[in-house]
Design goal:
The structure is a homodimer.
Chain A lengths: L2 H8 L2 H4 L3 H8 L3 E5 L4 E3 L7 E7 L2 E7 L2 E8 L3 E3 L1 H6 L6 E4 L3 E7 H10 L1 H27 L2 H15 L5 E3 L4 H7 L4 H11 L4 E4 L2 E4 L2 H8 L12 H4 L21
Helix pairs in contact in A: 5-6, 7-9, 7-10, 8-9
The first copy, chain A, binds a DNA duplex through helix 9.
Chain lengths: 258, 258
DNA sequence: CGCGTTGTTGAAGAGCTTCAAATCTGGTGG
DNA sequence: CCACCAGATTTGAAGCTCTTCAACAACGCG
């Protein structure tokens, strides 16, 4: 494992506050694994033994019931996932699947729990991380229950636009069928939702979306700070030496985070 | 404040593991307040200064957008709420409103955060509580995105039946329009959903629901341990001297918890 | 260049909401 | 004790949103 990888883990809000000693203890038995695209890392219902840290690639968290399935989150580096199951030493409630070739750092759940009981700074950081995840899900549920499909898409686009630098053009970060599942609709319906946003100045060509009448789009979308988190997850600030453009609430990698 | 009230707070998973000394510190400046039915305790977007503990009555957590509003959870004693906002010292994402006359114990958020940083046992308990809340929301989202309205209702009824003692008759704990909002539908649609469950042996008379063909209902509902939490929140075990009927996962007061 | 995957479009119908009106219910004052 | 009222619930009709299934177009990769 490269030293720079370990530094990226160290820079996560979850670990940045703890002492070097504690960090060494946490990562002592940990290891890095590479997975090809389309690998199922974890099936919902599986016992969770590790905390996962996505260092490179893309991971989708999904849930299934009867013959239906849906996407709960799409993660980009650097993000942790299934922390809640680790803390409770419980089965995972979501499946995790790579969408691209991915590098994942895996930390022992047992060590995480033991360290939390010994180090209050780390336990506090875990609480903050979980609280951020929780609030991400609250935002998701509100979006899902209060908005129509077109409204959810419009707000997703506005959020992406801000996160990608507030230009008049953005690039969709993953396949439209994944986006459709994330937004809680069918691919066909997403396609029609894009079509109906054309009358609000939105043009789609492949993965590129351009905005020509932002006021019209915002009038439809009515983004709200109580639903839409326009900040990127704090994790990404430190992921690629990017400058700190964002004065950020502790906003983590769950919900519409990416 | 009665001593038995303080004991009920003490018995919460969140506090039961800490020393008497730490508990005294946490509850030092805390106080009990009584609110009539229909009181708004907190508006979404408000700064949250206290951790709330519901000791008696009923509280609804809701979210609003444009002219729509929805219910995210209905809480019964003994439950904590808005812990995530307290941990992050952030604005609340949900409004809180009493549905009945309620007694609520309020603890200083500042003291909670300070104590977490000093006492790793308490910080660990907060993490467990938040992890349980998080998992409750994951269940809610999966139910919302993967099931139709009738399916959500059928599973809600099955969960309630188990929690109320697995008899062939249950009592709905609150108004149907609140239940409708919790399940993500209109009151009219809930009414029709009940009507369509009649063909599966479900009879409704006022707040009383009886089951005559449970197999038929379960065939439709297909409850899943990865969505439906059939255990009551651990909190309620200690709420009224009730016996410990449930070997329980740490399952807290959020989502379809009640 | 061909083929499989991904995305789009059309038609039909299921699921859900809205509005309006009728019915039921619990609580109140006489 | 009873009649009455306000709010809650149910029912009906209409229409909108979304899904499903099928067919077609576009894209990307070997």
């Amino acid at each position: 494992m490269r030293d720079t990888d370990l530094q990226r883990v160290r820079a996560l809000p979850l670990f940045s506050g703890v002492s070097s000693d504690v960090f060494r203890r946490l990562t002592g038995g940990a290891f890095l694994q590479r997975f090809p695209a389309g690998t199922t890392l974890l099936l919902e219902g599986d016992r969770v033994d590790f905390l996962y840290v996505l260092l490179d690639g893309t991971v989708e968290l999904q849930g299934a019931w009867k013959d239906r399935e849906t996407t709960l989150a799409v993660l980009r580096p650097v993000s942790t996932f299934i922390l809640a199951a680790v803390v409770l030493d419980a089965d995972g409630l979501m499946s995790a699947r790579t969408l691209q070739r991915s590098e994942i750092f895996m930390l022992s759940g047992e060590v995480i729990r033991r360290t939390m009981k010994e180090d209050s700074d780390f336990a506090f950081a875990v609480s903050q991380e979980l609280a951020g995840c929780y609030r991400g899900l609250v935002r998701s549920i509100k979006s899902q229950k209060l908005r129509t499909g077109v409204e959810r898409l419009a707000n997703y686009l506005i959020t992406q636009r801000i996160r990608q630098g507030a230009e008049d053009k953005i690039t969709l970060q993953y396949e439209k069928r994944v986006l459709a599942a994330l937004l809680g609709m069918t691919p066909e319906n997403l396609s029609r939702a894009f079509a109906s946003l054309a009358s609000h100045g939105v043009t789609v060509r492949g993965p590129t979306v351009t905005f020509s009448r932002l006021e019209a789009l915002e009038r439809l979308a009515r983004p709200s700070p109580l639903i839409d988190n326009h900040m990127p997850p704090q994790n990404r600030i430190t992921s690629k030496g990017e400058s700190e453009r964002w004065a950020s609430e502790v906003a983590r990698a769950v919900g519409y985070a990416h």
